[in-house]
Amino acid sequence: MEGGSSNKDESKPDRDNKKPTVVEEDQKMAAVPNMKEALEQLEDAVQKLPAEEKEAYLNAKKKAPELVERESNPRWFLQFAQYDTQQAARRLASYWKLRCAFFEERAFLPMNQTGEGAITKNVGHFVWGSLRVCCA
User: Fold this and answer.
1) What does each C-alpha distance from 48 to 27, 41, 43, 44, 76 come to in angstroms?
2) Model's pTM, two decimal places?
3) Angle, alpha carbons 11-16-17 (nearest 5°)
4) Could you identify which of 16, 33, 64, 126 might form a hypothetical disulfide with 108, taking C-beta atoms 3.0 to 4.6 angstroms apart as the criterion?
5) Radius of gyration (C-alpha) of the chain in whole angstroms
6) Burial of 56: CB neighbours in 10 Å, binned 0-12, 13-18, 19+
């Protein structure tokens, strides 16, 4: 019987080792008691940054708010910074500053390599390699 039960266990999907989806992560972060307050504090912290540091992020929010939410969700920055809103604000602003420096006018397009997004097919490998070196 033991052999039969181990076969049963092997046939079950390994859900414990499954990486959570973005939606699952968002649901988990939404359960943080003061997420709305943390997001407001993050925006306040961004406003207190020097103009040259926050300019790219503010432009992104203005030109492509859906893209900001989808590809640089402020909740992710808060979670990574363990809800230190000032650190999260600096990281979020830095992300958009670097993104704009690398992709220039294409920075506000989706991060894909279709030729219609931020990454053109010709420079995709170069840019990703540069990001690894620059941001490591």
Assistant:
1) 29, 11, 9, 6, 20
2) 0.64
3) 95
4) 64
5) 19
6) buried
